[in-house]
Amino acid sequence: MTTAERTELPTAQALTGQMIIAGDHVTGTGSAVHAINPATDERLQPAYAHGTAEDVVRASAAAAEAFVVYRNTSSADRADFLTAIADNLDAAKDALVARATAESGLPEARITGEVGRTSGQLRMFAGVLREGSWHGARIDPAQPDRTPAPRADIRQRKVALGPVAVFGASNFPLAFSVAGGDTASALAAGCPVIVKAHDAHPGTSELVGRAITEAITSTGMPAGTFSLLYGTGRELGIALVTDPQIKAVGFTGSRSGGTALVRAAASRPEPIPVYAEMSSINPVYPLPGALRNRGTELGRAFVGSLTMGSGQFCTNPGLVIAVDGPDLDTFIGAAADAVGESTPTPMLTPNIATTYARGIDEFEGVATEVARGTESSAPNACRAALFSTEADTFLSSETLQQEIFGASSLVVKCRDEQQVREVTAKLEGQLTATVHADESDHDDAGALLELLELKAGRILFNGWPTGVEVGHAMVHGGPYPATSDSRSTSVGSLAIERFLRPVAYQDVPQSLLPSSIADGNPEQIWRRVDGELTRD
Amino acid sequence: MTTAERTELPTAQALTGQMIIAGDHVTGTGSAVHAINPATDERLQPAYAHGTAEDVVRASAAAAEAFVVYRNTSSADRADFLTAIADNLDAAKDALVARATAESGLPEARITGEVGRTSGQLRMFAGVLREGSWHGARIDPAQPDRTPAPRADIRQRKVALGPVAVFGASNFPLAFSVAGGDTASALAAGCPVIVKAHDAHPGTSELVGRAITEAITSTGMPAGTFSLLYGTGRELGIALVTDPQIKAVGFTGSRSGGTALVRAAASRPEPIPVYAEMSSINPVYPLPGALRNRGTELGRAFVGSLTMGSGQFCTNPGLVIAVDGPDLDTFIGAAADAVGESTPTPMLTPNIATTYARGIDEFEGVATEVARGTESSAPNACRAALFSTEADTFLSSETLQQEIFGASSLVVKCRDEQQVREVTAKLEGQLTATVHADESDHDDAGALLELLELKAGRILFNGWPTGVEVGHAMVHGGPYPATSDSRSTSVGSLAIERFLRPVAYQDVPQSLLPSSIADGNPEQIWRRVDGELTRD
After folding, report:
1. What is the pLDDT of residues B280-308, one digit of tens each?
2. Which chain B residues are within 8 Å of A79, Cβ to Cβ?
3. What distance in Å separates the CA atoms of residue A255 and residue A429, rounded to the nearest whole number?
4. Between A39 and which of A48, A105, B69, B151 could a Cys-Cys bridge form, CB atoms 3.0 to 4.6 Å apart?
5. What residues does A319 pair with on adjacent strands?
6. Beta bridge partners of residue B363, listed in sequence order
7. What are phi and psi of B247, to 5 degrees?
8. Distance to chain B for A155, nearest Cα, Å
């Protein structure tokens, strides 16, 4: 990339309010929205006019056309493309931080970190592409002399599913949005991506969309590899998911939004997979030994995790399940003090703040309020809340088993460890489950672990679920309704698997075979030959 | 296993007509069916009374109870269990061949081969378990000194989904039925299995069910690991798929049956994955050079694949797409002669024979009949059929794009290779696509391969799609409606992936970690440590 081109990198000043369809800047013809700074209720310029079903058709036709070329780009070329996006994001960091903090009310340090997380994630997938195991290459060589029948030469590799629709999340304007984990893993797999931006941060979305478009130009990828649309989930979102060119969907958001997309995708003439990350209350289990030895410390640290980012994390610890008694009282007392001292911070949108307040009101009638954060007259402020209840009440209440998105948590007091397990067995699927255990707790912890493996995608000991490491071993997923597909993760390198399918090649001539499964291992990757992994 | 126990192995004489629920023999209280020998229309004894929703609840409760133990059995113990089933099947070969030939009308050599295929498949999954890569073990070690924040120790492995419902197929009374690929891969993954037997071969199903139950006893697995039920898809089948204890479904059968199960699974409070292998017409592409050099030979060999087993294979070549001209006429002439000389063989059931005849009647009105097999007055005989039509007619006819289950195929005549690709682009998803190409065809073949990768799960050159090798590289799957989930295969070792999900363990103490991801690699398996595969 030349210095001259660098000057075209996005700046906050240059926001246009336009969608990006295969490299073209297009003004929507639907109703227009403005981002709101939730910390001030200030309306941010410019207006973002929503797209229509016609824009979806245009973007998906361009994606289908691009797919023909993009799916066959080499691992190395796609790695360069992802790296170019990452470089562009890092270069645009100041503009991104300025706009995303204004649109989200999140602190500068958080957004700065999120830019790095987002570009780091793209670089991780570049590494996954260069390493090559993603091909899933398998070779069962011919056995011409086998009796009673000879064996053909059979080879397997994975291919991209096709154009993917991605729905940006409200709570991570960068890492789970336009160039977030869904987009990075789909692009890595060889799938063009069409993003429906979240209305809460259209300006950040435009900046990131332009960073991707720049990278497409500088690395020579086909223009239709990426499009960015604005619109409502109900209209533009459903149009996108039901478009015949779209072959998979990535979504992070509410349970109602996710299940609507799952239903729409299942009712297509050709159903397609939807990876929706939806709803989780992330139980925390302080076991007796841990409570006895460090109840106060745990109570305080718990509230640190609970109130971080106004509690607007998918992995926010919304439930504490423990055996009742003086040690649990110590924990609750320390947590209540910390909640009581907590200063309200703005939520992401006025709508989220309203929904949070309504959720708290509903809990008030059913559980005991233990503590609230300090009062605040600031707009959209999240006043943290801690409740407690008995296990029997919890089990009989649908309300108490729902997620309140924001800094609210409920302590469920159990008679004994047996009841802790009974409550756990009745929980829905979760993204995370957290155990606090000392040496003396290991028998209980082992029995609990057995249950938690059936309920959660990630199990933590002596830590807090907020903060999801991007790596090879991470699982950010879990049984329904934490996600719509427990066989996958939306964070970490395994996420690329969501957008691939295996194809077998039987007796295909060498000159026509993809290099990943050709003789001589030209890509020098790990392959399974006759069932054994080898790099030969 | 002692000699005394060996004598309890199933014999055809001892058929009871009972279901097997967690080791108990249970007589159904619903309407009773008899198997029919389709070659003679003879009614076979005993009667098999259908089960009810209560039997489903009993089997699923037992499966859920067994799951708690079975999911934690070691790879080695499950490998021994699968091997014991295989041994039992091989030991019962004579009884299986006698009953399955009578129930299916298929020749003895075919069923003898299918017993070996079924036991071989179980042994392959025993090998997969012993090799250990199925664990998907990944370790990202802690980085306590990382800045700005330390990295936790994060490990990942795969765990079993839970009890699986398997629907036996009509056309493979062994290899895709009670102990077929779905059951073998689910049991390997650590999932208990409940099979709904196909009404076409209840006696074979009982014999195989008893072979599995014997193996459960001899290897000490929990009784609820396996149950065998009889019933209709509409009642017992839907009850099974909507049972809250069932966590995944394997199915091989019709498109209408598969889509009904997919819909039922999607409408559950907790939706679950359905792996339905449904419908495929398996296009064959004889390219110009191949037609010119060996049109006659290809035409004859094609009919050999077409008429094998009365054409009752998921991979039966129901479509030939080629450029019109004298060389294609040669191919069609040779194929017509071979079809005309073909002797009708019995279809699997009277119902399948009736549906086949109806399908042929529907084609008669739209396409040109090129040849039929010889007349036959034998019951349920499949009189092979070959049709031809122009590409434009094919593209405008919904009828001609449907699968006729049985020995029927349609030659689609195209103006040129461009039209061959146009027709291909409009095809639905397929299990297989077959190219016949000589050296001179490789440019055309390359362009076609590009398209076929988007349409099919397996692409063959210069062979025939019937005959699906069981191995590590095989894909028996494909885009909708070939299957309901193109990301998987129902044949080959990759099939185990369908019944697993990843779980991450963060800072879990060594003493509580599963051995597959513990320090020191006690299972001595391949693991991905910090992104790199290693056996250390």
Report:
1. 999 999 999 999 999 999 999 999 999 99
2. none
3. 12
4. A105
5. A283, A410
6. none
7. -115, -5
8. 5
- Check CB contact under 8 Å for A474 and B528: no
Q: What SS3 class is residue B410?
A: strand
Asked if residues B494 and A156 have their Cβ atoms less than 8 Å apart, the reply is yes
Q: Under DSSP, is residue A251 helix (H, G, I), strand (E, B) or coil?
A: strand
* Mean pLDDT calculated for residue range A469-496: 98
- Enumerate the β-bridge partners of residue B413: B322, B390
Average pLDDT of chain A is 96
A252 touches A277 (CB < 8 A): yes
Q: Tell me the chain B residues in contact with residue A485 when contact means C-beta distances shorter than 8 Å.
A: 273
Find where tokens 């939520």 sit: A347
Among all chains, which residue has been given the structure tokens 């109806």?
A: B358
The C-alpha of A459 sits at a distance from chain B's nearest C-alpha, in angstroms, of: 5
Letter string b/e over residues A21-49, b meaning 16 or more CB atoms within 10 A of that residue's CB: bbbeebebebeebebbbbbeeeebeeebb
Q: Residue B485: how many CA atoms within 13 Å on its side-chain side? A: 26
Kindly state the tokens that stand for A47. 């207006």
Chain A residues touching residue B450 (CB < 8 angstroms): 68, 72
Q: CA–CA separation, B305 vs B102, rounded Å?
A: 23
Annotated active-site residue A277? The verdict is yes
Among B282, B486, B525, which would you mutate to test the A interface (most chain A Cβ atoms within 10 Å of its Cβ)?
Answer: B486
Among B53, B60, B50, smallest CA distance to B232 is for B50
Cβ atoms of A449 and A435 closer than 8 Å? yes
- Closest-approach residue (CA) in chain A for B134: A531
B121: closest CA of chain A, how far (Å): 14
Residue A373 CB neighbours (<10 A): 23
Contacts of residue A496, defined as CB under 8 A and 6 or more positions apart, other chains included, come to A125, A128, A134, A185, A188, A189
Q: Tell me which residue of A506, A189, A269, A493 sits closest to B479, measured CA to CA.
A: A269
DSSP A276: E
- Please tell me the distance in Å from A206's CA to the nearest CA on chain B: 29
ipTM: 0.97
Residues B271 and B248: their CA atoms lie apart, in Å, by 9
* Whether A131 and B472 lie within 8 Å, measured CB to CB: no
Q: What CA–CA distance (Å, rounded) separates B195 from B201?
A: 13
Q: Which residues pair with A286 in a beta bridge?
A: A436
Residue among A138, A460, A494 whose CB faces B507 most closely = A460
For residue B7, pLDDT over 70 is answered with: no
pTM, 2 dp? 0.97
Alpha-carbon gap, residue B390 to A52, rounded angstroms: 39
Mean pLDDT, residues A478-487: 97
CB contact under 8 A, A480 and B507: no
Token digits of residue B32? 């009773």
The 3 state secondary structure assigned to B114-171 is HHHHHHHHHHHHHHHHHHCHHHCCEEECCECCCCCCCECCEEEEEEECCCEEEECCCC
Q: Which two tokens stand for residue B530?
A: 């910090």
Over the stretch A203-228, which tens digit does the pLDDT of each residue have? Answer: 999 999 999 999 999 999 999 999 99
Residue B526 is encoded by which pair of tokens? 């391949």
Cβ contact, residue pair A474, B154, below 8 Å: yes
**pLDDT tens-place string over residues B311-364:** 999 999 999 999 999 999 999 999 999 999 999 999 999 999 999 999 999 999
How does DSSP assign B443-491, residue by residue? HHHHHHHHHHHHHEEEEEESS-SS----SSS-----TTTTBS-TT--SS
